[in-house]
Amino acid sequence: MDQDRDLYQPRPEHKFTFGLWTVGNTGRDAWGDPVRPALDPVRSVEKLAELGAYGVNFHDDDLVPFGSSAAERDRIVARFRQALDATGLVVPMATTNLFSHPIFRDGAFTSSDARVRAFALQKTIRAIDLGVELGAKIYVFWGGREGSESDSFRNTIEATKWFRDAINFLSAYSQDQGYDLRFALEPKPNEPRGDLYLPTVGHALAFIATLDRQEMIGLNPEFAHETMTGLNFPHAVGQAIEAGKLFHIDLNDQQMARFDQDFRFGSENPKRAFFVVKMLEESGYDGPRHYDAKAYRTEDEDGVWAFARGCMRSYLIFKEKARRFAEDTEIQGILADLRASDTDDGPGATGGYSAETVEAVRARTFDVDAMGAKGRRYEELDQLVMELLLGVR
Q1: Do 121 and 239 fall within a single domain?
Q2: Domain count of the chain?
Q3: Contact (Cβ atoms closer than 8 angstroms) between residue 279 and residue 249
Q4: Among residues 278, 298, 322, which one ends one of the domains?
C-alpha cells in the first residue's frame, strides 16, 4: 500500500500543470454567486508546488487585473516571479482573456467592429510579452467569443479571414521579437457563443493549413470540448499527434450534451481517460499535462486542493494501468493473434503506389467469404480492459 501511494504521488517530472483560473475558480455560475473567495495567485503557486505540480498557467487578466497601471503590473509580476523562483514552479503556457470584458460581446479577432479587432491584437501582444517574460513556450488561443448566435449580419467567410489575419499577424510578431514560442489553437463547439468558428480538432487542423507559419501553430485539444457534442476525444488526440500538431492538451472530464462542466479528470469517462493517457505515454508526447478543470461548486478551498490532487492522481493511476495493459499476457496474446492474422505482404497492403502495384492489386484473388466471416475478438478484449480498469486484473 505504501508503494502504491508513492507510485501515484505527483512529482514535477510528471509535468502536471494547472491554470490560475482552474484552482482559482470561485464556483460562481449563471444562477449563483461565488461560494469560495478568490485565491491570491501566489497562494495558488505555493499550494500547487506543495502538491507536486510542475507548473502554473494563466490568462493575462488572471495575474494582472484588467486596467492595471504599468507600475501595478510590474509589482504583481515581480511578486509572482518571486513565488515561482521560491517554489520551482514554471510557466509553460500563457493565454489571453478575449471573452470576459463587454468589448468582446461580438468576438475579438472576428468582431464585426474593426476597432475591437485592433484592440484584441493590442491586448494579445501585451499578453504574449507577459507570458514570454515569465518563461512561457506555448501560447494558447481559445476563441470563446469567436462565433455567433445569428448569421444575419456577419458571415463565416469574413470571420474566418479576420481570424486568419490575426493569427498571421501575431505569429509574425512573435518571430520578429525572436520569441521561442509556439501557438496552439483550442477548438470548442459552443459556449459562451451559440456556435463557435473552430468547433473541433478537425476544423482547427484545416484552418492551420491556411496559415502563413504553419510550423509554429498546432493544437490544444480539450477533453470536455470534444465530448460536449459526443465526439471521441482519444480520436481527436490521435489525429493531432499523427499530424504533428499536439502542442498542448487540456485534461478534464465531461458528460455528453451538457454545458462545459470541466469536471475532475477521469471522474466521468474513465475508459476514454485511460486511452488518452495510454496514447500520450506511448506516443512520446513530452509536453505539459494541463488540467483545465475546476472543483465542484459544493467545495471550499480544501475541496479545491482535493480536486487538484485527484486530477493528478487519476492520471498516474491510468498511467500504471497502461503499463499493466502492456504486460498482461492474456491481453497481449489476443493482440498478437489479431496482428498475426491481419498481416499481409501482398500488393496493396503497404500503401506504396506504382503502376506495377496497380496491376498486381487488380490481379489479386481474395476469399471474401472467409475474410467477411472473421471475428475480431473486440468484445473479449474490451472486457479485459474493463476488468483492468475495475481492478480485478
Answers
A1: yes
A2: 2
A3: no
A4: 322
Question: Are 348 and 357 contacting, i.e. CB atoms less than 8 angstroms apart?
Answer: yes
DSSP string, 236-296: HHHHHHHTT-B---EE-B--TTSS---BPTTSS-HHHHHHHHHHHHHHT--S-EEE-----
Q: What is the CATH number for 101?
A: 3.20.20.150
Cα 307 to Cα 310: distance, rounded to the nearest angstrom: 5
pLDDT single digits (tens) 127-185: 999 999 999 999 999 999 999 999 999 999 999 999 999 999 999 999 999 999 999 99
Can you tell me the distance from the alpha carbon of 69 to that of 315, in angstroms, rounded to the nearest whole number?
Answer: 40
Domain encompassing residue 333: 328-389
For 173-231, what is each residue's pLDDT tens digit? Answer: 999 999 999 999 999 999 999 999 999 999 999 999 999 999 999 999 999 999 999 99
169, 215: one domain = yes
Residue with cell 468582431: 111
Residues 112, 129: Cα–Cα separation, whole Å = 26
| pLDDT for 324 beyond 80 | yes
Amino acid at 92: P
- Burial of residue 21 (CB within 10 Å: 0-12, 13-18, 19+) is middle
Please tell me what DSSP assigns to residue 67: T
Residues 209 and 346 in one domain: no
Whether residue 1 is predicted with pLDDT greater than 80 in this model: the reply is: no
- Answer yes or no: do 166 and 63 share one domain: yes
181 and 71 inside one domain: yes
Q: Are residues 191 and 130 in the same domain?
A: yes
Supply φ then ψ for residue 222, to 5 degrees: -125, 135
DSSP lists the bridge partners of residue 90 as 55
Q: Where are the alpha helices (DSSP H) in the chain?
A: 2-7, 20-23, 41-51, 60-63, 70-87, 114-133, 156-176, 201-208, 223-228, 233-242, 270-283, 301-327, 329-342, 355-363, 368-373, 378-389
Same domain, 143 and 171: yes
In this structure, the chain runs to a length of 393
* Start-to-end CA span in the chain (Å): 17
What are the residue numbers of the active site?
Answer: 59, 62
End position of a domain, from candidates 322, 341, 363: 322
Q: Based on the domain organization, do 66 and 201 belong to the same domain?
A: yes
Structure confidence by residue, pLDDT tens digits, 305-316: 999 999 999 999
* pLDDT, tens digit (0-9, with 9 covering 90-100), for 104-116: 999 999 999 999 9
Which amino acid, one-letter code, is at 216? M
